[in-house]
Amino acid sequence: MASIAPCNISGATTASEDLQRHGFCVLQDIEPQARIAEIDRALDPRFASTPFCQGGFYGPRTKRFGGLLKRVPAVENLVRNAAVMRLVRSVLDPWCDTIQLNLTQALELHPGAPAQLPHRDQDMWRGPAGELEYLVNVMWPVSPFKAENGATLIWPGSHNLGTAGDDGNPIALEADPGSAILFLGSTLHGAGSNHTSAVRRGIIISYCLGWLKPYENQWLTYPPDVASAFDPELAALVGYQQHRPNLGNYDGQCPSILLRGEPLEYLAATDALRPDQEGALAEFLRHQQRADQIPPAGGIVESEAQRNKER
Ligand SMILES: O=C(O)CCC(=O)C(=O)O
Ligand SMILES: [Fe+2]
Q1: N or C: which end of the chain has fewer CB within 10 A?
Q2: Quick check: is 299 in a domain?
């Protein structure tokens, strides 16, 4: 198997072109190594107490846990990294009103961990394949990723085929802490095998279309008492925003209302429509008002109330 530095693939192309063309790209040195080292140290106690995963997909000799934004606040810098967000939005924005955080997960591949089942992360949803992108995954190496310690294997050009299985030969994406490996939900990939005597540690942060059920239940992971301490943009990313039309509302309101500490009783359910739906509705209401035989909605309500009074 080839283990080549990503620049050999990239040539003079931009990260965005790589992502579109090959299904992955590597953004080198986009976070300070000191920040990743700080996050690394903060992960230690929890990894020490976390048992090995069960089940063939997560894989034997691996450890994983989620909810990183509440366990290690510095992870917010990775989640909201501007270069990453630009690329993620360029892929997902065409298919949704707002994107959302799908998962934050720290994972360790221990010595002897076998290679993971090659898979496409989009297969967690059973929608049409090959037409749209559902997800962008970002792997942040916390230890240096090398072919021999299980660097993520990627099948270049395997994206958007919509089929499972082996699409040629993978490459091992070697990268250092501070860099980010981005790949599409449709790109075939998997963890490599760890042949060394040291643990390979990484952080997965993935983003998906705002109308999907995320892999990690963000509302339960970050309930209002946790999310109210978040920056509003971060809170929106973990689900405290409506996806037009009206998706994810709380009692007909944007769920961000739960973060404001205001009284919540007896609020008017309020539409949050897309501009095209606002337009269609306005058109409908214009027609309705012109048609004499249909009285305005307010009229019906009033005359019924009147009738009830008279009974
Ligand atoms: O650990 C890796 O390199 C990849 C892990 C992965 O793709 C997954 O768990 O879905
Ligand atoms: Fe994966």
Answers
A1: C
A2: yes
